Each structure stands twice: as structure tokens, then as C-alpha cells.
Amino acid sequence: MSRQSNRTTDSKKMNAELFTLTYGALVTQLCKDYENDEEVNKQLDKMGYNIGVRLIEDFLARSSVGRCQDFRETADVIAKVAFKMYLGITPSVTNWSPAGDEFSLILESNPLVDFVELPDNHSSLVYSNLLCGVLRGALEMVQMAVAVKFSQDTLRGDNVTEIRMKFIKRMEENLPAGDE
Amino acid sequence: MLTRLKTQVPLFSMNSYTKLREKLKLSGLSFASTHSHVIRLGRHSRHNSKMAVCIAVIAKENYPLFIRSVPIQNELKFHYTVHTSLDVVEEKISAVGKAMADQRELYLGLLYPTEDYKVYGYVTNSKVKFVIVVDSSNTSLRDNEIRSMFRKLHNSFTDVMCNPFYNPGDTIQSKAFDSIVSAMMVQAS
């Protein structure tokens, strides 16, 4: 199955709205089902993880980037290739820790949160937590264990959305543990 | 232009610019100063002419989703005004026959003038109504400005609808919508 990258920009606008609304419906349904923001965050992370472990295959097939030599290269590939390919945005990589194992992705705009305003009773909801799961799952498939979390969120009143990624360890080559 | 000066001056608070205008008017205007006057006045009045006194959003079941008026103490009167304007809206929607239903324009125009106010209406295809009440003395407000206000309201309302946390039928509590509406309202003097 050859998958040509025929993403043209003309239909992107409509797809983006449908995508945003779909994600919104997903989050609100989860909120109604679980009624607990922490639980919803966990579920979003799990769902993201499941997406990530599959998405990495698609990404590697489409982008044909080779194995990254170090974490810095990984960060650049994530920001410049992966985000661009799937969300159409290019976050910037900043705030490297002195040890070089932690960095931040700064997103000026987040297509998942167009039109969204968090109501007051969901103040601890991490709306875009799916993204954290996706990154974690995808990197786990290339033998990198990372911890991902949101440190700033425009829905909570910050100016930008910031994702903090921390490298934990390189994993042994072993079969994937399967879906959580 | 001078008649516009006459109606503008008593309405709005006397800021320093208005005082200057008064002074110039009394001292006799030269063309140059009139002209620069007119340009600046134009900007000033355009700034004020985009101001409504009350803005309301009514659901298709005819209950208010959002109503905001300035000054706050007359709110009940505006509620009543908007409520009575709904009859006119219904009349205008049903006036066009079934065959012309798709050709009916969203903007309804001036619904009815009272001695103090003019009430404008706009209906979406989902039967959500927007009502704007402006001061009668604000004669400089043109039709296409009202249309653009309604267009902005409609766009803002669509954004509110797209918020996944908003349930259709709830009152509108969006901060973005609030700020759009506040930008269109007269500044409380």
C-alpha cells in the first residue's frame, strides 16, 4: 500500500474544523462519563498512547527520517516534521535543561482548542492531554521512554501552550507490551 | 456636519476633545479647521456610532440566551423592548411565503422605532434572533454598519456554538462573546 503524501492546503480548513469539533465532542463525552477531571486526563493520555503507537508507523513511512542520534535531534524532528505533518503547526523547541534531557515545545496556536473555552467547573482538565499520550506512545515505539506534560495552556489563561518533554531512558529492544 | 455636531455634543460625555469642538464652533470655524474637524469628528462619531444601547440573542424557542444593556439600571425596560420586538420578528419571518423561504435575507432591518430607540433585527436560518437597540438620536448609524454589527455577532455566536462545553440552549457565558458585545456597546458615561 503506497501512501502518497497528497495533502493539499485547499481542503485543510474544513477538515480542521471537523477535527476540532470531533475532539471537542470526545472530551465533553469523557467529562460526562467520568465526571472527574483527573480521570478524564488519564483516559485522554491512554487514548493518546494508543494513537501514538500506531501513528509512529505512519510517520516513519511518510517522512523517511532516519534514526535520531540524540535527544536534540528527536526534538527537532518532532517539532518540525511531525507536528507540521499532522497538525499543520510548527512549535518551537526551547528551554533545554542543562543536562540536555528536557525541553519545551512552545505552540503559538493549538488546532485542538479552536473555539474552546473551559468552563469553571473543569479547571483541572488538561484539554489537549491526548497530545501528551501520542508523543509518549510514539517515542516508546522507537525505544525512548519519555514523560510528557503540559506546563502552560492557553485555555488556562497563559499566552502560549507549552509541552514539557523529559527523556527518561532508552529502552531495551523488546516486543511492545500491547495496548494498556 | 454642523447639525451632527449639535446632536452629538449633548449625548456624549464632555471629554477634552468635545470641549475643543465646542470652543471652535463658538469662535467660528475656518474651512481648514472644519475640515480637520470633520475628519476627526468623523472618526470620533464613527467610533461612537458603532455603539448599541442593548444587544440581545434570542433562542428559537424565544427565550433570551444573552442580553446586555447599557446603562445597567434600565435593564428591565430593554428586556421588555426586546420582548415586544419578537412579535415584529415573527411577523417578518412569516410574511415571506414558503416559496420564498430560501430567499429571505437574514438581516431584517429596522423592526420598529420608538421615541427613544430604534430596534433592529436579524434572524439566522436556525431561527436564532439577534436584536440590537440603538439610541434614536444616533442618526449617523448607517444601515451597513448595523449589518456589519450583526455579522460580527453572528460570527461570534457561531464560535460560541463550536465550543464543545457549550450546550445549545444554555445562556451564553463566553468571555470572547462578551468582549465582542462590549466593543459594540456605548461606553457608560
Automatic annotation (TrEMBL), chain A:
Q: What Pfam families does this protein map onto?
A: TRAPP
Protein name (Swiss-Prot/TrEMBL): Trafficking protein particle complex subunit
Just give the chief location class: endoplasmic reticulum
The protein's job, in short, is: May play a role in vesicular transport from endoplasmic reticulum to Golgi.
Look up and give the organism this protein is from.
Oncorhynchus tshawytscha (Chinook salmon)
Write down the Gene3D superfamilies for this protein, in alphabetical order. Answer: Trafficking protein particle complex subunit 3 (3.30.1380.20)
Question: Gene that codes for this?
Answer: TRAPPC3
> Which BP terms does GO give this entry?
Golgi vesicle transport
Query: What is annotated about its quaternary structure and interactions?
Result: Homodimer.
UniProtKB/TrEMBL annotation, chain B:
- Say where the protein is mainly found: cytoplasm
Database matches in InterPro entries: Longin-like_dom_sf, Sedlin, TRAPPC2L
Q: Tell me a GO cellular component.
A: perinuclear region of cytoplasm
Give its localization.
Cytoplasm, Perinuclear region
Signal peptide coordinates: none
Key words, A-Z: ER-Golgi transport, Transport
Pfam families reported for this sequence = Sedlin_N
Q: Which GO terms describe its biological process?
A: endoplasmic reticulum to Golgi vesicle-mediated transport
Note whether Cell membrane occurs among the keywords. no
What Gene3D superfamilies does the database record attribute to this sequence?
A: 3.30.450.70
Family according to the record: Belongs to the TRAPP small subunits family. Sedlin subfamily.
Instruction: Supply the name of the protein.
Output: Trafficking protein particle complex subunit 2-like protein
Organism whose genome encodes this protein: Oncorhynchus tshawytscha (Chinook salmon)
